[in-house]
Amino acid sequence: MLCPICQQKTLSQTSHKCSDYLSKHTFTLLNCHACGCYITQGISQNPTTDYYGTAYYNSKKGKFSPLIEKIFRFNHKRNAQFFYKNFQPKRVLEMGCGRAYILRELKQLGVQVYCLESAGAAEWILKNEDVNVLTTEQENIWPTEFFQLIVFWHVFEHLPDPITALEQATQVLEKDGVLCISVPNISSYQAQLALATWFHLDVPRHLFHFSKKGLIELLERHDYEILKVTSGDAIQNLFGWFQSLANLFTPYAPNTLYRFLQGGSAWRKVAKFPLLIQLLTAIIWVPIGLLGYIIEELTAHYGTVTIFAKKKV
Ligand SMILES: [Zn+2]
């Protein structure tokens, strides 16, 4: 089969059976031997209603309990400051902005901020008054070469057609403008440890699973110059290790620890026995996870990867 990412006929079915911790549906994966990317198979006809909704977003107040939410917000504030300091954009587009932490911070710094969301996103996302949120159903919204910076922050892997989204983003990005894509890295060691229960696999919400190499090559083929390839979010990378290791002890109830940390209604639905096992085995997965995290950072096999690329033509 033809790989949509690298355009080679090197895509084939794998034997991985991956279960969704929310819908309990099972999915299979295709793998490309050339670029190392994977693609989720077996999605329902109504992915937005079947796989997202309140179980995924939790609530408007946040996806996590207040302390974790504060850490996320702080992280996004640092990301926004990094974008501002390094690229000084006048106009920024974020593809899928969720609670819009990055954009709200950039707006405070005087940047004009825009977000493109799927029409099926939660109403509180679409009606965010701080940000200009438009949906993919509205066509030709911006003139070509309108933005100096376009960000896909843990969004690219959710898109049913990331290649077309990349081409659309390229159209509205200025020449010499910067594209920033941050995604889970399926060529990381934590992913290869036990792919089907890897925390960041998150099937079926993640449809495309990029390897660092596959994503770099994709951008280069679309006339981008790679400026920087860095480790993604430290918390995501470290938690990816912790949760993926804890899942090995309760493969029938994955991501229990994560739902516990989410708090609110997510936590109330968690089966308490697997949670107890995941908590008690912390004595094993904390030291191994820390070691795995350090090795990944030192060898550039990051659990999540962020790529900055400049539009050349
Ligand atoms: Zn490929």
CATH class: Alpha Beta
* Structural class computed from helices and strand pairing: alpha/beta
Number of strands: 11
Q: What is the number of independent domains?
A: 1
User: How many whole angstroms does the radius of gyration measure?
Assistant: 19 Å
Distance between the termini: 31 Å
User: Segments where pLDDT lies below 50 for 5+ residues?
Assistant: none
Let me know the largest β-sheet.
7 strands, mixed
- Encode the helix/strand succession as letters: EEEHHHEHEHEEHEHEHEHHHHHE
CATH fold-level name:
Rossmann fold
The CATH superfamily title: Vaccinia Virus protein VP39
Helical content band? 25-40%
Query: What small-molecule ligands were found?
Result: zinc ion
Number of helices: 13
Give the name of the CATH architecture.
3-Layer(aba) Sandwich
Overall pLDDT level: 90
Query: Approximately how much beta-strand content do the residues carry?
Result: 15-25%
Estimate the global geometry from the Cα principal axes. Answer: globular
| Major β-sheet strand ordering | 6-5-4-7-8-11-10
